[in-house]
């Protein structure tokens, strides 16, 4: 079902407002009333689309995961480092273009559940592509994924000053060194 523009706009405002509130508050501290007041949207309107604030967060996370899967599905047909670098750079650019969302949901202390979803999506996808090599290196793959998340977290918090291409190259080099060790 295609949502009309008014519904899309309302959901966008609610999502954006929730992300802003999550910068300073844990999800458990945000009420529907507070969210609606900040978004200047009636609570009845909120309840038309969501049961609670967690349902909205879940929708945001699912959209991000689906977008990431779109990029990851391109990995199925590639094998060279140049192709992997290209896809990683697209992923890093996506993260940068959605910095407000990732800055909150990837924050070190905010949302372990999303980070776990993120890792599971990548792990399953990469495991399927590199099945033979990964079966013997599950610990290394886990290390690479958590290390990449730490790099992204530091990059988003401006502790690492790199371009998306440099970040993608850093993650690829890091992963290759670990897998080939």
Largest sheet: none
* Mean pLDDT across residues: 83
Structural class: mainly alpha
What is the highest CATH level, the class of the largest domain? Mainly Alpha
CATH topology descriptor of the largest domain: Tetracycline Repressor, domain 2
Indicate how many domains the architecture comprises.
Answer: 2
Q: What Rg is obtained from the alpha carbons, in whole angstroms?
A: 18 Å
Terminal residue distance: 49 Å
Q: What fraction of residues sit in β-strands?
A: under 5%
Report the uncertain regions. none
Number of DSSP E strands: 0
- The H/E string reads HHHHHHHHHH
Overall description:
- By secondary structure, this protein is mainly α.
- Helix content is 75%, strand content 0%.
- The chain has 10 helices and no strands.
- It has helices spanning 5-22, 32-39, 43-49, 53-72, 81-97, 99-105, 112-129, 131-135, 138-156, 164-180.
